Amino acid sequence: MTKIPPSLHSTPSPGLLPRRRALQHLAVGALAGAGLGARAQGGSSRLVLGQSAAFTGPAAQLGIQMNAGARLAFDAFNAAGGLGGLRIDLQTLDDGYDPARCKANTEKFLAADVFALFGYVGTPTSLAALPLVKDGRTPFFGPFTGAMALREPHARPLFHVRASYDDETALIVKQLTSLGLNKVAVFRQNDSYGQAGLDGVTKALKAKGLNPVAVATVERNSVDVAAAVKALVPAKPDAIVQISAYKSCAAFIRAARKAGFGGTFYNVSFVGTQALADELGPEANGVVVSQVMPYPYTNSVPIVREYLAAIKAINDAKVQPNYSSMEGYVAARVFIEGLRQARSATFDAFVSGVESLQGFNLGGFTVNFGPHQHVASRFVELSMLTKEGGVRR
Known about the structure:
Blueprint: E1 8-9, H1 19-28, E2 46-53, H2 60-79, E3 87-94, H3 99-111, E4 116-118, H4 123-133, E5 140-141, E6 158-159, H5 165-178, E7 184-189, H6 192-206, E8 214-218, H7 226-232, E9 239-243, H8 246-258, E10 264-267, H9 273-280, E11 288-291, H10 302-314, H11 323-341, H12 347-355, E12 360-362, E13 365-367, E14 381-385, E15 391-392
Parallel strand pairs: 1-3, 2-3, 2-4, 4-5, 5-6, 7-8, 7-9, 9-10, 10-11
Antiparallel strand pairs: 11-14, 12-13, 14-15
């Protein structure tokens, strides 16, 4: 597993460079033909991004891995000279997957005037930040969430790289019903994330004239699943769709099987695939997870080859391929491509730059933004965990 990033702070680091200073640096140089080819007097300039995520607590691996993948891309970009000397500085604050802490972190980032907010982790946390950014001029880029509440209505500062939970649950329900498994129950986190997943499942089932046979909840950052097991197992579902993080999902799987449930468990991507496999060990065998990123374990497509080469280059045994860091890597690469298309490091230019990525092929992962389209992908596929702790398609 990846260490907590060394730049993690409870408050913005002393080196946090405000956006207005970054723009002043950029103004020193002339724009190069490639886009933002500007150099500051006496050295290169930095574009500071702020990331609030869980780096401690029961959901820590989600933030750690998302950050680790993003850093692979940003560090490679910086090591290659950035864009005409402009380098990206990703600053982090720990929110422990708590909305109130995320809101406070966001206020700190905005007060420091960072250029963009990047790679936030979670629906309830991202929704806590939303009122602070949706009408502003700070990009909110690539959050690790598929909630429709962050996608509709359209907000100019928000850009999503991944598919939605509606897309994921639609594929899950399609798979289940095609196998004749129509009795579907839902185990969900008792917050906006869990509700978003339940809404997706309910919508997909309703299209087939079905409804969930039972629904039960678990509190965020909790593994107290006893009540949920008592509510769901007696309903005798064919399958249980789980909308929670890896520790609570693992606890529920163990307890439900012990209580006699013999059906299949399905999860959406936010669960943290490798973290769930690590939690369950051999008991992970047969658990299904929907995925919104390319398979990160083989050189199947160019973007994955690039990602695996970046991991190999840092030569750190603690950094291993997984879907969560793959998402961070892809989001960072898309951010960089949007920056390349911008003509200046301003909000309007960056938004236009990202919106120009229409049908853009990022090494086998298609990105399709536009002026009124700020969700880049609807790619979803299913994966299955193995008893050896691996993931197969």
